[in-house]
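Slide 14.
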Amino acid sequence: MYKTLAAIFLVVVSMILLGSSMRAQNAAPAGNPAYGKIVFMKAGCYSCHGTVGQGGPAGPRLAPMKLSNQNFVNTVRNGKKDENQSIYWDGMPAYSARFVSDSELADISPISQAFPRRRP
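Slide 15: predicted structure.
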């Protein structure tokens, strides 16, 4: 009987640990928002999206971020065509990992939550 209880206990603990590790893999990386602000400026994101993510003539507002972390990374890596943006600009260009690394994107992602919100 003790062997059966021990086996059940091990299965339950294994399932709990496996579930928590799978959730951790799907979660957005923590990132370093202080460094993310530096990368945002250094990479030139501000030139389209504004210095505090308020948006501009060539880029949409980023505060608050409406994209999931995975969609954010996909948009940066693949770009996003936007026919309605401007007659001079057709959307966001793609940026490779050589220009902005994955860890830098993880640092940029949480800073959108620190940007000031639009006033109602």
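Speaker note: The first strand starts at residue 80 and ends at 81.
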